[in-house]
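Troubleshooting log. The previous structure file for this entry was overwritten by mistake, so regenerating from the original sequence record. Sequence copied from the archived sheet and checked twice against the printout by T.R.
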Amino acid sequence: FGVEELLSEQNISEELKNVFATLPQLFGTVDALERAKLLTSNQGALKAIARLEELYGILKYYGVEKYVSFDLGMISKYMYYTGIIFRGYTFGTGDAIVKGGRYDHMMGHFGKDAPSIGFVVVVDQLLTALSRQKIDVPSEQVNRLILYKKEQRKEAITLAKHLRIENNYVELICQKESLDLEDYLTFARRSRINEILYFEDKDRILSVNTETKVAKPAGLMALLS
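Regenerated output below.
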């Protein structure tokens, strides 16, 4: 957006203006690389395109070429990239779940000169995609949520400390007056939490299975004495 107006203000050749104006349209299958080669005689640019073609050939060996698109208009705000940059997408989210690229000189700032390539997984986008695609990731660990009222905070934290010492995965939430146990069960299932430990009152803790909604005394009061 606004590329033509920006280019009209620059003191560059018409050939370069045409190249920059066309770059955002060079998106799609490997044919985008063929179109790009017709726009330039610059050897550095042609070498970069040839490298993309080589990588595409390797991806074909893996049989994943139908999942690959090229975007020669893609840029990054991070200036340390020295080669290819890439992003990974899936259904159920409008943004990339993986972002990365090549940065051959960055490791030198940390004491080791080495060519490097890496990526990050955008966890929020990944979890959104898993939820919307209804993909369940099996886990053997038991995750617990301790649900307490404000006046029970000390007891809840004490209980969490005991459970964590025994290698339990525990999350604490102070219950809002506007929400009931059913609201927290919905949250727990979405967050892959197996059990809610609910402070019903100061002398009683209930264990609530988030799938069956069956509640029973937790028998954990001794840990608070």
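Residues 75-137 form one domain. Archived copy saved in two places this time.
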